[in-house]
TrEMBL record:
Coiled-coil parts of chain: none
Keywords: Hydrolase, Signal
GO terms, molecular function: arylsulfatase activity
Protein name as annotated: N-acetylgalactosamine-6-sulfatase
Length: 468
């Protein structure tokens, strides 16, 4: 059983990350969309959806063909982006079921040690951002508790147009059409509710805070983490964006329109970096937090591309997401990364760029790997396993998946416990042929690896990685 933990044990014992170069460490921008499927972007072949700025970003830098979210739903994935660790390690196993522990070391805390200014913008969803909000699921754990100097954040979802107002036709989550959305002030700036500049496109509202942060910190290194709400429900697009898709019905107009509006703001960000002369000093990453929503996928509006599944499933469509990265002069244009990469890889990648290593008291398992060798074409194959999952035991849901080599073992996320399936995703990337009955020995071997990773995560979750 020890051999199954070897990739984890190396990180746990040493936690030393490769240094990319002796050049000045870059600014870092982490962009993430919400519930955007692998197929919901032009650079992955969508025939109708307009994402010209993301497409140009992918052409100018690296496009990831197989990039995975750590979980098929938002909150667990978000924690993995900041810590480089599987969600099962830090205890955020589903949405609204916890908050980021202050004992975790985030990318923001890491780069602050190197003199970076840090800002968070958008949907947090790994703890409440309102100090007066008392909820039964989760707790107050805002960005400021995790290394961010500045934050403009919501606890969870807001409408993608006029985020403080419940949109027309919406009646879920206890909200009523036309009434204030969750009190009418869902955004908090450094712990205080925001009422100004809160109408129109939500992605623009977010970027209106990102741009000044970058302008203010243009003479020093910075980290900007920008997590958009688009295209998570409630999905609403402004009139000018819906007009771009006038040949479609209103639901598709809103879905496509809000993604195009987000893309426009990403273009605005890229233009600002060039205006300030920062583009060659800045690495920009983009990905989604999980696959497309269940409802939008069933309606045929959202797309996981050719892959099976969607949000809340352990199939490829639940965790495989659109992703690209840009760093002019370092990442060559039209780079294609075919190796399997994941959100847990952001932390070790940035650690390498800023020459960070844990102190002896802070050492802990890191589950990701450095992406720079893949983006610079120095490496083609990922070593070790990738583990994904989410858990709502109160509903008897315990979905897990492991990729080891070309094989993927998954346990369906279904009430009462889903069945175990096995796929060769190199030969069968769309998961059409279940090999579990044909290869019982391999199923047993991979399931033992899952159990070993879960035990390691349990030890972390129970406090082994935290100082007392």
């Amino acid at each position: 059983m020890v051999m199954n933990l070897r990739p984890l044990a190396v990180s746990a014992l040493f936690c030393v990350f490769p240094v990319a170069a002796k050049a000045e460490p870059p600014n870092v921008i982490l962009l993430m969309s919400d519930d955007q499927g692998w197929g919901d972007v032009g650079f992955n072949g969508h025939p109708d959806l307009l994402t010209p700025n993301l497409d140009e970003m992918a052409r100018s830098g690296a496009k990831f063909e197989r990039f995975y979210a750590a979980s098929p739903l938002c909150s667990p994935t978000r924690g993995s982006c900041l810590t480089g660790r599987y969600p099962f390690r830090y205890g955020i196993l589903a949405a609204h079921t916890g908050g980021m522990r202050v004992g975790e070391i985030t990318v923001a805390e890491m780069v602050k040690e190197k003199g970076y200014q840090t800002g968070f913008f958008g949907k947090w969803h790994i703890g409440w951002v309102d100090p007066d909000d008392v909820g039964s699921r989760g707790y107050y754990s805002p960005p400021g508790h995790h290394g961010f100097d500045y934050s403009f954040a919501t606890t969870s979802a807001v409408p993608t147009w006029d985020p403080g107002i419940t949109p027309k036709g919406w009646s879920q989550w206890g909200q009523k059409e036309g009434e204030p959305w969750k009190g009418g002030a869902p955004y908090f700036e450094n712990g205080k509710p925001v009422s100004e500049n809160m109408s129109g496109d939500d992605s623009r509202i977010i970027m209106d805070r990102v741009i000044p942060f970058i302008e203010k910190n243009k003479e020093q290194p910075f980290l900007a983490t920008v997590w958009f709400h688009a295209p998570h429900d409630p999905v609403v697009a402004g009139p000018e964006y819906k007009k771009l898709y006038r040949e479609f019905g209103s639901t598709r107009q809103n879905y496509y329109g809000c993604i195009t509006a987000m893309d426009e703001q990403i273009g605005r960000l890229r233009s600002k970096l060039r205006e300030l002369g920062l583009e060659k000093k800045t690495v920009v990453f983009f990905c989604s937090d999980n696959g497309p929503s269940d409802g939008a996928t069933r309606k045929g509006i959202a797309s996981a591309g050719p892959f099976k599944g969607h949000k809340h499933t352990m199939y490829e469509g639940g965790t495989l997401v659109p992703a690209c990265a840009e760093w002019p002069g370092v990442i060559q244009p039209e780079t294609i990364v075919s190796a399997r990469c994941a959100t847990v890889d952001f932390f070790p990648t940035i650690a390498g760029l800023v020459d960070f290593s844990f102190s002896s008291k802070e050492r802990r398992p890191i589950d990701g790997v450095d992406l720079m060798p893949f983006m610079k074409n120095d490496k083609q194959t990922r070593e070790g396993e990738l583990f994904f999952g989410f858990r709502r035991l109160v509903q008897e849901i315990d979905g897990k998946a492991l990729i080891s080599g070309d094989y993927k073992l998954l346990q369906e996320a279904k009430k009462g416990g889903g069945r175990i399936r096995l796929y060769n995703i190199a030969e069968d990337p769309f998961e059409e042929r279940d090999l579990a009955k044909d290869k019982p020995a391999l199923v047993k071997e991979l399931f033992e690896k899952v159990e070993a990773i879960e035990r390691s995560c349990q030890v972390s979750r129970d406090g082994a990685d935290y100082r007392y």
